[in-house]
Amino acid sequence: MSKVSMVLNGKKVSADVEDRTLLVSYIRETRGLTGTHVGCDTSQCGACVVQVNGKAVKSCTLLAAQAEGADVVTVEGLASGGELHPVQAAFREHHGLQCGFCTPGMIMSAVDMINRHGAGNLDEKTIRHELEGNICRCTGYHNIVKAIKAASDQMAGMAQAAE
User: Fold this and answer.
1) What is the DSSP letter of 49?
2) Separation CA 26–CA 22 (nearest Å)
3) Helix (H) or strand (E) holding 58
4) CATH classification of the domain holding 56
């Protein structure tokens, strides 16, 4: 057993976990945050994507102990003050989900994509390429791509308005 401490969605948390505990299991089972999904157990689907120290990570590929001291954000941690994150709002507005199983991982990957490329700097080809590590079994990619593009453009407008 190891004691693992991290900041999870802005709150300092710690727990004793078995050394083999995956971050996704820690998030879901120990912390009770079930927005992060387990879809494949082989790191192929991307349903378990979270942000670790500001970067998208498939949480099924990381031990909880490896996240010791890290800042971890799940889909539940994106909204602020009861208001959806722009990516979450765009997924809702542009119907970027069907069954919803892949949605948390897609949203977390989209936030990372926008952070790395810069708001307003995404085109459809780039978005589709960046989503290769996320699988939507409902094949709803068209609306997912539209939602990510819309969120990126909206976030660019918000940044310009703040200047």
Assistant:
1) E
2) 6
3) strand 55-58
4) 3.10.20.30
Provide the residue count of the chain: 163
Q: Quickly list DSSP for 109-123.
A: HHHHHHHHH-TT---
Residues 70 and 101 in one domain: no
* Tokens 């192929």 -> residue: 44
This prediction has a pTM of 0.94
- Tell me the per-residue pLDDT of 37-58, one tens digit each, with 9 for 90 and over: 998 878 899 999 999 999 999 9
Cα–Cα distance for residue pair 58/27, rounded to 1 Å: 12
Alpha carbons 132 and 148: distance in angstroms, whole number: 14
Return the amino acid letter for 55. Answer: K
The secondary structure of 141-157 as a DSSP string is HHHHHHHHHHHHHHHHH
Question: Rounded CA gap, 122 and 43, in Å?
Answer: 25
User: Rounded to 5 degrees, what are φ and ψ at 70?
Assistant: -80, 165
Contact between 134 and 111 under an 8 Å Cβ cutoff? The reply is no
Q: Across all residues in the chain, what is the average pLDDT?
A: 95
Q: Using alpha carbons, select from 27, 53, 35 the residue that is nearest to residue 104.
A: 35
Range of the domain at 104: 86-162
